[in-house]
Design goal:
seven-stranded mixed β-sheet; ARMT1; single chain; Rossmann fold; metal-binding; alpha/beta; metal ion binding; 2 domains; globular
Length: about 400
């Protein structure tokens, strides 16, 4: 049976990286080389890995041509299939989503992540994740959870949802305790806000499974876990299926190890944070918090191409919540959609109700009201990519 496709998909060009000065060009041209250097400084990799990193930088430099993964890599055949005709093309000329994903997979190959030996399974991004998770800012954020029970129930819902939305922005975390200014005065960068529709959807039926597709680890994963606890304790969900990555992917993406690190961080805190951490540990052992790590989570493909097993998981959920920018690109398609294209149209293929919680950090956007787009464009700012704006979108 053929997969459903979003309407008018052919009218929206795929994002590529060959326009000098574009966001996608900047990622391949500037961010990836800087990341390689950061990885090199963080961990004392031996000469073999150092040479492989140099080779990766040469391959991905401007004008560089894509080379195939070595056949010794466990998923080399799968990546050849996903590549289609991209091998041998310039990095800048293939779809940005594919190129960015392939870069991270080749980075793991260069570091011997899957190879037999002492460097097998070593997360190259772990030093960054752990440093952020152990930072002093996290202490104050977790302490702020003590004020949440003093809020009215509806404000608790919104506060915890928006804390998950904004991730590790400390000024928009758990700090809306009683007596502070209202949420509407604090959160000014929402370009679409379907918060009420999300909670109404969960209130309109018996508690069922909620799929929460995580994005980043560290301080950004903590509010996702707090939100999962809130869904369980308020009977909005009978269980939460937390989708994480089976291995390190983009620089901060969450894995099982990162979930466990967050639970340990909360357990070491005091007050409400420690209570939530304890409940979540019990939820894991009791089957109410399910960790899922589908291989497709690290595929360079949109959710339109998801395999049957993942589709069935989403179809059985009362709601699937997609966190973060990359999941948004995969959900709607990494294309230059007109900004006013309906979110419901580009997600109509999805097998159940779906919500997106996303801080804007790339060019792709759908579902804007015409007046909102006009106001944003009139600012002259890089509102699509700066992380200063966000959205909550729901398709029932």
């Amino acid at each position: 049976m053929s997969q459903p496709t979003p309407a008018d998909v052919g009218n929206a060009p795929v994002v590529v990286s060959n326009t000098v000065g574009s966001f996608a060009w900047g990622v391949l041209h500037d961010r990836h080389p800087a990341l390689v250097e950061r990885v090199r400084r963080a961990t004392p990799y031996p000469a073999e890995q150092q040479h492989a990193l140099h080779a990766l930088l040469r391959e991905t430099a401007e004008g560089g041509v894509i080379e195939a993964l070595d056949d010794t890599e466990p998923d080399a055949a799968e990546w050849r299939r996903w590549a289609g005709g991209h091998i041998g093309c310039r990095w800048a000329d293939v779809p940005f989503l594919w190129a960015e994903s392939y870069f991270y997979r080749k980075l793991l190959a260069a570091l011997g992540y899957f190879a037999p030996g002492p460097w097998r399974g070593i997360d190259p991004f772990a030093p960054f994740k752990r440093a952020e998770l152990m930072g002093a800012t996290v202490d104050s954020e977790l302490a702020a959870l003590d004020g949440i029970p003093r809020l009215p129930a509806a404000q608790q819902d919104t506060t915890l949802l928006h804390a998950s939305l904004w991730g590790n922005r400390a000024d928009l975390g758990f700090r809306l305790s009683a007596g502070e200014s209202g949420l509407g005065e604090r959160v000014t960068g929402l370009v679409v806000d379907d918060t009420t529709a999300l909670w109404d959807l969960l209130a309109g039926q018996r508690p069922g499974k909620v799929c929460l597709v995580a994005d980043n680890a560290g301080p950004e994963l903590l509010p996702d876990l707090v939100l999962a606890d809130h869904l369980l304790t308020t009977d909005r969900a009978s269980c939460v299926s937390l989708h994480i990555k089976p291995y390190p992917y983009y620089i901060s993406d969450a894995t099982t190890t990162d979930v466990l690190d967050c639970l340990t961080r909360m357990a070491a805190a005091s007050g409400r944070a420690s209570e939530i951490g304890g409940r979540l540990r019990q939820a894991v052992t009791g089957g109410r918090l399910l960790l899922r790590a589908y291989p497709f989570a690290c595929a360079p493909l949109p959710y339109l191409d998801m395999p049957v097993g993942l589709r069935e998981d989403f179809a059985s959920a009362t709601l699937t919540v997609m966190k973060g920018d990359l999941n948004y690109r995969r959900l709607v398609g990494d294309r230059h959609w007109p900004a006013t294209t309906a979110f419901s149209k580009v997600t109509e293929y999805f097998p159940g109700p779906v919500a997106a919680l996303r801080t804007l950090k790339s060019d792709v956007i759908t579902g804007l009201a015409p007046h909102t787009q006009a106001e944003l464009e009139a600012t002259g700012s890089a509102w699509r990519t700066s992380g200063t704006h966000a959205l909550v979108q729901v398709r029932t």
